[in-house]
DNA sequence: TATTTTCTGATTTACGTACCTCAAAAACTG
DNA sequence: CAGTTTTTGAGGTACGTAAATCAGAAAATA
């Protein structure tokens, strides 16, 4: 039978109240007594019944998710997952609020964070945009005792507690590896298209990509990165122009969003002349393109995992628990048309 | 505030006892009253507090995991995950027992299942071996009212409730796709090495592999599959022999275990002459080989996910809940050296 | 020694649900 | 209509923990 607090009290020869004081770090227990209780705990292998504890506490955690009002599929998916979490919030004793901010706008983000800090929620998750203002706002949040997690795009060097997202440098390296191998020994040019070099995740992907391209595939030369602000229409235009200009493009890495436009542009190219394409995020568009053969490989980060991980970490931080790195690592999924979920 | 049973009772104008009778399907409620209560439940959006319910029930689920006494890394990992689940079992109100059976032995497996049935656990998970005896044993388990889940290797056509594992046909297809593309337009032979064609998962992988090879890569000819019973020593021998015999082998698909031996054999080959290699399962050996470049891509099924999914499904079955397919789908992970976790 | 301070014990209530009993009311039966 | 059966109500206990109160014991201080 699983030991309970009563068993510990009996085993340590103290009262229930004292056990409670030790377990919950309340004051008023002599050092020797505390040790006696702790020994009983480890002897009996007691573990707190979290369900019962939460039931007794009745406390709910209030979290705020700050989301850029982007309309690309991936951000929509993230929002959906946050909303799914909100609907589960009753069962998990969390209360989640979503705050919208304009995308790629450091000042607006910092302002939003400051406004949120005034409400004193237990935790905040946000998609980082780089900027000194944001760093400062994060510092203020932490000062107020609020747990802070970055989501999808990180803000290294800031005082955030955790980053819930993938290793974007590794993603770029993986993309390069796939593209290099899929082009099968041929020589030619590689085009890379990003949303914006102002966003850290895109920059890191490109860095990783270029590194592996340089190291392992000298036969391929990468054109200067194109930026299309994750806008499908702009992306279509840019890609079409590039393909028209350089008939020797044999590979394309789409490291941002706006794949709808890119797919559109690729469809115009005759089948034999189509480059090998690696893109990010499994969405309706990219899934169809993968099945059709317009995209050759997809790198994906699981939005659901990221959101749930962020919530788990926030909760843990509020309770003063350490982050279990292995559990919170978000994987880079690779999808070919054969292993699409 | 989250509604409770009290709120429902008040809203429906009935007593707590009646609400309880409706919620737990107990008899003795008139049809009209039952409907009134159900309406109140949906009106208020009541959801049972599972934690509190479990606390009150105090029931624990008893599950048995039947594992082949294989010593390959993947099976060891599965066992480790089962043990990890056992150590968590207190918190999750499950009691898990592990039963060992000799590998690849349908009769022994069937006997073990029959012995287990006598104990009347709530659920059983096992790694299937094909055979009429096993089908019959599963039927007997189900007759006794025991939930049954197959793990890693399935037993289609049997009365098992669920399969916790990957789509092995898709895995084979994915391997073929990778191998085809990584060999980059060259012509040559492809070797495939399996554990045993008696195990369904290996057979399905091979089927998928051959299908895509035939469809998409006619320039590659696949040699007859070699079987090495997941034994490293035997695998090393077989692979060495094949490579010696056919200098035009440019690709190798290791679809079973025993990769330690295969890696050993590959190391003997001069770097330029090494085939492209796709293997299964991320273990210490394969991870090192991937980093070193001896293996080019790894397909992986997450042992932890599989075990946890099996337990979740067993629990659900005992409680009469449906399986949420999307949640229980085990993904085929692809790892290149750049996205290893 | 007297007094204060610090520690500890005993006990209680609450969380939301399950499950039980007993009595009373309502609905049927003939 | 009386008698029987079915349905409902009222109330309690339990699960394991949190959190509080208050009294009493022990230790430290004056």
TrEMBL record, chains A, B:
**InterPro entries (alphabetical):** HTH_LacI, Lambda_DNA-bd_dom_sf, Peripla_BP_I, SBP_2_dom
Which domain of life, per UniProt? Bacteria
The Swiss-Prot or TrEMBL record annotates one GO molecular function as:
transcription cis-regulatory region binding
- Start and end residues of each HTH lacI-type domain: 3-57
Residues folding into a coiled coil are none
Keywords in alphabetical order, please. DNA-binding, Transcription, Transcription regulation
| Name of this protein | Substrate-binding domain-containing protein
